[in-house]
């Protein structure tokens, strides 16, 4: 069976101030063409279909168009909700849409009820694990403490239990939206940390033939059977070096896996350039970036006059301007933001405690801090769900 694995469409999202709807529509067209031209048997979309719980109308219309075009091709499609989606809104009408071959899996309690598709070698069971917010689903899965590894592990126990009841030789695919250990993050993914921990080990998915992951925006292989497709479009300059693709996955009669990356259309190249303003305006080596979306980091000791307008004269698609003067690390003018760069909320809180009393928090105090941060993140999630 041939699958096309994609995720993280983020329909409705912009790139800085650039509306990405046309680029997203071009991607949908490319996906449909790939399904038709490469003989795809099923499409799997591993979450974050939309960029927010209440997407703009234009994004909903594009999603509707995508569903109609995939249904017209007769290629079954299995989708799960991600942490950016409203599971309830995305799942409206799922029972009816099932009849058209579009299978929306947004209910955590239904994770062990697979979509069964068949090829010449027998059945393939597709299990959808929508994004599992630990604080919201821990009771459903009967775990004592809310945590990503605990709830995903419990969901996978249900999957394996159901798979054990299926006919011998039934192959299996799991769709999951999670941060799995070994994955590389970018700046455009929303933080899902709970208890200071966001990642779950890939071993939690043992026992199935293929795991189609979503959440991280870079295409990645964590094992022969565990992959992220990544987002089809860039959503931050941290993705400047990404190759945006989908995975074309062939599952053999014994569950053997072969995978090929299929490139997605690139609306415009991304470039991150750094130097003094004069260097950026005069360096001939930067000619190749003149048509790219540009993030420029200026290292001038003093902010030059009208830098954005001057940069745009050479790089008309400059979208982001960052000031990072070259200074010694002990220079008192090094910015507070620079000192905090790359540090987690918990690390910053630890530093504050050290600053105030001369010693860091003990383990009990760290538990209190983690609980406070988790409570804030949970409240943010609940507000998003309620919107």
UniProtKB/TrEMBL annotation:
One of its GO terms (molecular function) is exonuclease activity. Coiled coil: none annotated. InterPro entries: Calcineurin-like_PHP, DNA_Repair-Maintenance_Comp, Metallo-depent_PP-like, Mre11_N, SbcD, SbcD_C. Residues 267-353 form the Nuclease SbcCD subunit D C-terminal domain. Residues 1-218 form the Calcineurin-like phosphoesterase domain. SUPFAM superfamilies: Metallo-dependent phosphatases. Keywords: DNA recombination, DNA replication, Endonuclease, Exonuclease, Hydrolase, Nuclease. NCBIfam families: sbcd (TIGR00619). Belongs to the SbcD family. Heterodimer of SbcC and SbcD. SbcCD cleaves DNA hairpin structures. These structures can inhibit DNA replication and are intermediates in certain DNA recombination reactions. The complex acts as a 3'->5' double strand exonuclease that can open hairpins. It also has a 5' single-strand endonuclease activity. This is Nuclease SbcCD subunit D. It comes from Streptomyces alfalfae.
